[in-house]
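ugh ok so i messed up the first submission bc i forgot one of the chains. this is the corrected input, ALL of the components this time, i swear. 625 residues overall. if the numbers dont match what u have on ur side tell me asap before i send this to the collaborators (the ones from the other lab, u know who)
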Amino acid sequence: MRFGEFGGRYVPEILIPPLEELEKAYKKFKNDDEFKKELDYYLKNFAGRPTPLYLAKNLSKELGMKLYLKREDLLHGGAHKINNTVGQALLAKFMGKNRVIAETGAGQHGVATAMASALLGLKCRIYMGEIDYDRQRMNVFRMQVLGAEVVAVKSGSRTLKDAINEALRDWAESFEKTHYLIGSVVGPHPFPTIVRDFQSVIGLEVKKQILEAENSMPDVIVACVGGGSNAIGIFYPFLEEDVRLIGVEAGGEGIETGKHSASLAAGGKGILHGMLSYFLQDDDGMIVDTHSIAAGLDYPGVGPEHAFLKDSGRVEYSFVTDKEAIKAFLRLSKLEGIIPALESAHALAYLEKDERLKGSTVIVNLSGRGDKDLSIVMEAMK
Amino acid sequence: MISKSLIVFLPAGYPSKERTLEFMLSANADIFEIGIPFSDPIADGETIQNAYFKALSSGFRVDDVFWIARRFLEIDERDLILMSYFNPIYRHGLKKFVEKAYGSGFKAILVVDLPFDEAGEFFDICRDFGIGNIFLAAPNTSEERLRIIDELSTFIYLVSTYGVTGEREKVSEIAFKALNNAKKVCKKPIAVGFGVSKKNHVDELFKAGADGVVVGSAVVKLIEECGERAEKEIAKFTSKLKN
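and heres the new structure output, hopefully the right one now
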């Protein structure tokens, strides 16, 4: 239940039984033939798996490397989030729950949860910080169209972390019939493991695809890290391979300004949302406000397995700023005809900062598409 | 430590540490449970959340809670319990925190999001200092876990209902069932909290065999609503609860 010293189950006593129930159910169903069959079916026919591993020729030439993009942006909903929501919604169904709740920042996970809930006939309530609710009205409406109830959270900093707080409060009251469908590799055990497993489909596909294309392992894999679900999803099947793995956090306006979300680069060990990990906090242990131009990276902590992989040295972690991400966003759009999510643009921006990548075979997890970010980029370019 | 005790919860530093001290001195409580404001209080309802956020935005520091305890115990001898989420303690350094809590006179510490499975090191440090631990139990806690909680706790803090802190119309059937069950399993005294806010709640719970009841949000509401008059209202309210 831990990754080295990280992870754990730091929750009020009332949440222990539902977490134990979930752990037991997950152990049972993950190897259940019927569950696996249904999950595979929906991943293929509903979500659109497998996604291509695409050789980005033009950008490769420009950067002096052989660059492949794992096209999670092509999935239903436009991001990797659906891998996890279909998996967990199905798990909820197998557990006999008729309702799911979830948190969302910009709305990607909320939309993916609403989609999976509609698919499987589950009632769905999404918690969203009031600030996000106001600036992401289109995603709010998208969730509502999909049949979800969206609740604006007015407490605390009124962003993603507060939405998670509110979802946990709901769950403490509703767990008998409700599954908490958490959106990243965060939270108390067993959530980080469950979400990692459902997202590992990314890395497993990549492994097959790169062997077909190159007949060898890649040199490097790069992914952006907020909570860290797309990164762990592509890294996990490669942990035992001789492959450099690099996670890229949101440097915001620069680490020195304090306006960023780079909890591995600048945070300290702490406990929030049921887990021991790295968090951005003051010296009294209060969680501080964060910033990133990519809403999906705007979280003051990181999944406990990343904390472990950082400390063990197996994965390297770096960060890029908002500006660098926007530059990479525009560059990929122009050169390859693919508009990446600003989150994924962080991984792309890193490619220009590491001289050692030259001449290597590199895979970037293109975790989502960037249509949702156009107005933000338009604003930033003014 | 408790026997038909009225335990009053107060958020430290709301609206200021001096006021918290005044509220304590005027309240007719047997024991005080002083909460350290936290930025992300997942077990608390709106009332206590707001109190915590206001305390933090007006500059509350964790050390203020030790100041409050020391000043209080210079003039009063009622028992104090410290309540916190785990991160402020962890960040402080477990040993340093416990040393300060002990040094300022707290009798026991309750960490809301630290179930006993995760409490090992913290529990040992508390024991070395001779300061008690209070663990939560809930209506859905298994008998096996209840037994362990009973063994480790100074007294048991039984959460009366599903959900978070906050006022409720009545004490639910679930609470009485949980209390009955806990009384059968546990040897230590049991205090009931969450959603206890009225005179008849307190009476009913004592009648059902609770050794203590914790009233929190209802008192915090008075602070929120009564401004300058708050300590008088708290005195009146707690006296009514007590007799």
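quick check: The beta strands of chain B are 5-11, 31-35, 79-84, 108-111, 132-134, 136-137, 156-159, 190-193, 212-215. that seems consistent at least. The radius of gyration of chain B is 16 Å.
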